[in-house]
Amino acid sequence: MTKANVSKKVDTAKKDIEKALTNAKDYSRNLYLAGLGVYNTTEQQRSKAYKEVVKTGTTIFKDLVKAGEGLEKKGKKLVNEQTKAVNEQISAVKSTVNKRFNTAKSTVTKKVNKLEATAKKTIKTEAKAVEKAAVKVQAKVAAVKAPVKAAVKKAPAKAPVKAAAKAPVKAAPKAAVVAPAAQA
Known about the structure:
- The chain is an all-alpha fold.
- It has helices at 3-154, 161-166, 174-183.
- It has one domain (3-153).
- It contains 3 helices and no strands.
């Protein structure tokens, strides 16, 4: 490429950029002006509407107050009716709960009393059986004890075990050891 061609292309690009900037500035200005137009139109309409409201404001306000009073009366009436209905339902539920609680309490009390009576009866029966078994065991112990006591009375008195355990043990002759075994 020659210098002239490059220079020509640069000039063309500069012109295109300047044209684009001019178009952007024009477009931005038009957007700004359109915004001002919207603001102006809105302000005129608001001002006109405000004048109408001020003109008829007192009448409208009085009408709104009347409508509000009517709704207030209806609201109070509705709240009172609903409160009364809820209180009646609460009373009915309380009554039902109390009845069921008392019925359940009565049933539980009866069952507990019946269980206590059955337990007492069972304990008495078992106590009698244990007492009879204890008497039988005491009789058996006494039966076993009597021959042992008699044997203890007949047996010769022996040296205390502790004294014998502390005494030195001497080796006994073999003949002496055999003799007592032969006597038995």
